[in-house]
Write a structure and sequence with these properties.
By secondary structure, the chain is mainly beta. The protein contains 1 helix and 14 strands, in the order ββββββββββββββα. It has 2 domains: 72 residues, no CATH class; 73 residues, no CATH class. Strands 4, 5, 6, 7, 8, 9, 10, 11, 12, 13 and 14 form an 11-stranded antiparallel beta sheet that branches. A 3-stranded antiparallel beta sheet has the order 1-2-3, with no helix packed on it. Strand 13 and strand 14 form a beta hairpin. It is elongated. The C terminus is likely disordered.
């Protein structure tokens, strides 16, 4: 009896875009091996930039900016990273860190249910101060994921601003973050 093997499309999770006079007018996402048309919501805008395609989505919680890039020029774009700007910092998304002289995070505290709780990093995580931002890097199943935290007003309380996977382009993240924080620039 023959066995059927189903392989995932190499484009799974990828996006294609329709351009009309330089404006993105259509979005398709590869889901379950098929290109699916995605509705462009009233609360989102898509634009083509020198870095790739940028989606800006605003809702009652704040603004999320996502960069999609086409690394090999085949017309299929994948999410490079997203940047979040909450309307106000969520009371459960606050962190405090202490650092050694090399910028390595030595203590992590998270605000949870009205008090600061010390968190222990997982074995597959590293936390490091880089260019005024805290970067958490996590490797899981061979895939690298990263999260960037900022202390917008230098009060020692940090919030998550960006997350992504693959190699972190901190210059690119900072470019997207520019002007996105409620209290001013992050860096």
């Amino acid at each position: 009896m023959a066995r059927t093997v189903t392989a995932a499309s190499p484009f799974e999770g990828g996006y294609r875009f329709t351009l009309t006079s330089g404006t993105i007018t259509g979005v398709q996402e590869m889901e379950k091996g098929r290109w699916q048309n995605e509705k462009i919501g009233r609360n989102e805008s898509w634009s083509l930039t020198a870095d790739g395609v940028v989606k800006t989505e605003t809702d009652r919680d704040g603004t999320e900016v996502t960069l999609y890039t086409d690394a090999n020029g085949d017309g299929v774009f994948f999410e490079a990273y997203s940047v979040n700007r909450p309307v106000t910092s969520g009371v459960d998304d606050l962190y405090r860190f202490t650092f050694d002289s090399a910028g390595k995070v030595t203590t992590i505290q998270e605000w949870d249910d009205g008090s600061w709780e010390t968190e222990r990093p997982d074995r597959n995580e590293t936390w490091q101060l880089r260019d005024g931002l805290v970067v958490k890097t996590e490797v899981e199943k061979g895939r690298t994921e990263w999260t960037v935290y900022a202390d917008n007003n230098n009060d020692g309380t940090w919030v998550e601003l960006a997350e992504g996977h693959g190699t972190l382009d901190l210059v690119g993240v900072k470019a997207l973050l520019s002007g996105l924080t409620a209290e001013g620039l992050v860096y």
